[in-house]
Design goal:
By secondary structure, this protein is of the alpha+beta class. Helix content is 35%, strand content 18%. It has 12 helices and 13 strands. The strands form 4 sheets. The chain has a 5-stranded antiparallel sheet with strand order 5-4-12-13-6. The protein has a 3-stranded antiparallel sheet with strand order 1-2-3. It has a 3-stranded antiparallel sheet with strand order 8-9-10, with helices on both faces. A hairpin with a 2-residue loop joins β2 and β3. The protein is globular, with a radius of gyration of 20 Å. The two termini are 36 Å apart.
Length: 394
């Protein structure tokens, strides 16, 4: 299972092949419109909004890419992921009240009040469980349903989309789900530690798309700075932060984060994520946008001061000096991820199969990894020790 498409993404086939396979099923999962929305911005980096009727009414799934087809596939695959993660009747049949080999729920990073309630106990009565597979230890085990399905009302924490991923095959889905969990963990540690001061210099980048993307930002008079957020796990994680000196719209002070075994692909993901975030804010301006409403009340200059550490830097690393861990083969890449996790002190890599229909979709869970960047109520008891460790390494 070699990686055949790797210039701006990391897939076993060209996005056109993926599109031909998924297009016929989009209407079956409730998709009723696909619209390119980057015309609302001035960057010209493709962004699509996919409208779907979901469990919570009409929802929009966003997709981005360096090409039109890649962005369209990205948004459509996200729609498939979200559909697959909704709790359906067939999923209820998989739920258990009495697990045989449950994960220790304390390792799932709980809100502080739940940790206090738990004490020395390993579980809470009334939790619904579902079977997953631990790739590292090669065994089945059960995880709480609120860590798998979304939306889902459980007893432990608010459900979210972290680690939900689809792919052209199962291994591709697992790899991309794992990279997302590692990305959110590294971002969370950076937020908690305040360590966002290492800028990435991209002059040595070999991928021409990086230079083309940055030229688009420069031509639009949008300053963007790249930050190295890589945690002790060692898989390149990049943050891209932009300002908006032309329109002075605080909602367009956006961040994008990308994680990949290849640092240049991580950079491309972060930059296209910024473009997506900008288009999303502009697309939702006429609709209900909680973030947009709040930050526009705060104002542009004040918002930039609040987040000034993202725009400042104290040290620089060349992109050519960031470790490239990519092996260009799904099995070898997954093995690399496993090895990196174990070296970083993480002993489980769990996936739950969410496939509904033609497209492989999974939820990946890596116990002990932080989710603060998505849920400010959840911080693990070992976060401080990890931050101390990272600071000692750097």
């Amino acid at each position: 299972m070699d990686i055949l498409y790797k210039l701006d993404n990391y897939r076993v086939c060209h996005p056109r092949e993926t599109w031909d396979r998924i297009y016929p099923i989009l209407s079956e999962i409730g998709v009723r419109g696909i619209e390119r929305i980057d015309h609302l911005d001035r960057l010209g980096i493709p962004v699509y909004a996919v409208e779907r009727i979901g469990e919570e009414g009409i929802v929009y799934h966003l997709g981005k890419g360096t090409t039109d087809i890649q962005a369209k596939v990205s948004g459509s695959m996200e729609a498939i992921e979200r559909y697959s993660a909704e709790l359906k009747e067939e999923d209820r049949k998989r739920l258990k009240e009495k697990p045989e080999n449950p994960v220790d729920i304390r390792e799932l990073v709980l809100p502080l009040d739940i940790y206090r309630y738990l004490g020395e106990r390993k579980s809470i009565r009334g939790i619904q469980w579902i079977e997953g597979f631990d790739v590292i230890n090669e065994c089945t085990l059960e995880v709480p349903a609120e860590g798998v399905f979304h939306p889902y009302r459980g007893k432990l924490f608010r459900s979210n989309t972290n680690g939900i991923a689809s792919g052209n095959n199962l291994y591709e889905a697992i790899l991309h789900g794992a990279l997302e969990v590692i990305e959110r963990d590294a971002w969370s540690i950076a937020e908690l530690s305040g360590n966002t001061y290492r800028r990435i210099e991209i002059e040595g980048a070999k991928n021409p798309l990086i230079h083309e993307l940055l030229e688009r930002f420069e031509s639009a008079n949008i300053n963007v700075i790249l930050k190295d957020l890589t945690s002790e796990v060692g898989i390149p994680t990049v943050g891209a932060v932009c300002d908006e000196e032309v329109w002075k719209d605080p909602a367009l002070l956006c961040i994008g984060v990308g994680c990949h075994l290849h640092p240049e692909i991580a950079v491309i993901r972060a930059l296209t994520e910024v473009a997506q975030s900008r288009s999303t804010q502009l697309h939702s301006r006429g609709k209900s946008s909680l973030r947009g409403d709040i930050v526009r009340r705060i104002g542009y200059e004040r918002m930039k001061r609040i987040h000034r550490r993202w725009y400042e830097y104290r040290e620089v690393i060349g992109i050519e000096d960031m470790e490239n861990c990519a092996r260009y083969n799904l099995r070898r890449d997954l093995k690399t991820v496993e090895e990196k996790l174990i070296e970083g002190g993480f002993d489980k890599l769990i996936y739950v199969d969410l496939k509904k229909g033609e497209v492989d979709t999974v939820r990946v869970i890596i116990p002990k990894m932080e989710v603060y960047s998505m849920d400010r109520d959840r911080i693990s008891p070992w976060a401080k020790e990890r931050i101390r460790k990272i600071r000692s390494i750097r």
